[in-house]
Amino acid sequence: MRKWYWSLGIGSAIMIAIAVFAVGQWGGLVSPERISSAVVRAASLAAGSKVVGQVKPTTDRPYPSATQWSSMFRSSGDYRRLIRAALPSALNGDGRAAWYIAKAVSECALIVKQYRGSEDAEDQLQRELDSMSGAPQWSRDVLAQRTRRCIGLAKGDPFQTLPGRQGGYTSEYWYDQAVTDGEPLALERRAAATLNQILVTRDMPDDQRSAELAVVNSDLRTAVHSGDPDAMYQAGILLADGRLSNSPENGIAIALAACDLGSDCTSDNPEGPLYNCRISGQCTSGIDYPTVIQHDFDPETYARVYSKAQQIEQSVRAGDWDVVMADITLDKLH
What we know:
59% of the residues lie in helices and 0% in strands. With 334 residues, it is mainly α. It has 2 domains: 184 residues, no CATH class; 120 residues, no CATH class. α4 runs antiparallel to α7. It is globular, with a radius of gyration of 20 Å. The relative contact order is 0.14.
């Protein structure tokens, strides 16, 4: 077995990319804030209203809107229009709608700041692209696409019809709202952000570290137990990081099962960490997580891990969670 998840090889790079991706977007420019595991931050439509309580359970929740919102987000050429379409559902407890609103606001934060008040946004963009003459074409294409998606938010506030609230309706507000609604992708994001803080805070007291890790493991277990393939995929690869877990093969098996259950684990998925690899020319179109795993494992190890992945997949489909939930814990940081 090639233990690439302990090295700085391609496998480890994918895991790190997904951990970062879970906190924000691949290419995001805003560092995540410190997320405390002691409490879930309160979110409200206006001061004094809709105070957040305990996170809703997700185990038996169907996800009829997951594919809908994902498809709309990926194909959108105007995030302001997307937010307006998702807003009624988000306000009615659809955590996936709130998740994509948060992603759109987060991705556009810097662009909105740069283009707010611009008299000719397209001309401003063209001048910025011209100034990047030495940059690779793929990076210019990404900037142009992202800017055009976000320009609408610089021209008008999609939340202007909502009650005023101090601080406005930021991406963190909507991420918190998604957590409150029990959205498993938001729980995985919170777990990854908290892990990031644990890893970079060397002098964290032992009792605080234990408390943080307890919530991280709870969030990851809830994300996996949701049965949502995208949440299982991201949680699985986080659990597969040998820096964090003594049983990384269990996480790999969960991620492989998630791919078979319907998560788009390919480099063609613009929401996934492999997408940057593809558009930069470092990966081919269509390469996926199972292919990377098979390449980096010897045949015997891959057969063992894939067999476990099949068991997990079958158990999820059958609603038998004992196999799925076995050994879901990050136990190296205690």
